[in-house]
Amino acid sequence: MVKKVVNASGKRKTAVARATVQKGTGLIRINKKPVELYEPEIARWKILEPIKIADKHIDNVNIDVNVNGGGFMSQASAVRTAIAKGLVDFTGDPSLKIAFLDHDRSLLVSDSRRKESKKPLGRGARKKRQKSYR
Known about the structure:
elongated
C-alpha cells in the first residue's frame, strides 16, 4: 500500500460523494449503511461496478462514503466515481486505473454537465412565450 488514508470525491449533477479509503477488511459503507443494504437495487448495481473491477484490492481496504444532493441515480454515479478515484489513489496501481478507464471513463472523471440557466422572456432555458401578431 502507498498511503494510509485517502479522501476522494465524485460529482454528478448536484450530487456530491466523498469517499474515505483506508486499510481494513473489505467493509464498504454508504451513509453509514453497508453497500449490500443500499436501496434501490438498480443504484446498488451501479455502485458495485468499480468494486467488481477491483476485486483483488477490495479485501484489504475499508471505504466510507458520504453522499448528499441530487436524486438516487445521480448519487449512485457520484459514489462510484468517488470509490474508483479513492481506490486508484490508495493502491497506486496503474493497471487498476487502466481497467477503470477501459470499462467506463466516468468512473474516474466526474460529470461536468450542469443545468442551463433560465433566460429572460422565457419559461426556462430555451422555451419562450409564444408571439401573436393578430
